[in-house]
Amino acid sequence: MAEDTRQNILECGRDEFLEKGFEGASLRAIAKAAGVTTGAIYGYFPDKKALFDALVSGPAREILDQFAAIQEGFAALPPQRQEAEMIQTSHEGMDWMMEHIYRHYDAFKLLICRSAGPDYNAFLDQMVEIEMQSTFRFVEVMRREGKQVREVEEPLIHILVNSFFSGLFEIVVHDMPKEKAAGYLNGLKEFYTAGWFQILGL
Prior knowledge:
There is one protein chain. The chain is an all-alpha fold. The chain has 2 domains: about 45 residues, Orthogonal Bundle (Arc Repressor Mutant, subunit A), CATH 1.10.10.60; about 140 residues. About 85% of the residues lie in helices and about 0% in strands. The chain has 10 helices and no strands. Helix 4 runs antiparallel to helix 5 and helix 4 crosses helix 6. The chain starts with a helix and ends with a helix. The relative contact order is 0.10. The model has no long low-confidence stretch (mean pLDDT about 90).
């Protein structure tokens, strides 16, 4: 019974946040929709932020953990395989992220479009940091292998990585059907793959 009540509150909270955003959402309205008192909500969630986090934190953490695991697995490959498999690994990781986003679409719609700004910014910053660390490691591996990799300043790498993830999440901002998003993602793959090879001189 308690779990059913909690789930009902979550579903009504999701609808309220999707409609009004984090700032505009009201615990009173959520309680009314769920058929409970505001005090009952506090029995499950200490505040509005905790309720919002319960809706988005699991899928967000999963994408961060899986993305980090993909990068760590790639870094563990021998240098020759890293060079040969870099594009495939990158593209497979993008495909996984898109599938994950559409499996948990409401959670990402809330995080990207309906959250308080710091929530999304913190999530985006973590994605960018994982990718930047992976990029630096790959460059160092290629240099140790004797490849002539151009010097690229860290701020430029940050801008490019940030712009990629911001672009990826546009599929949610614009509510793209999954099939259309897949085509959009293919365009991003082509654009950024060619761009990175050009900038790094590989």
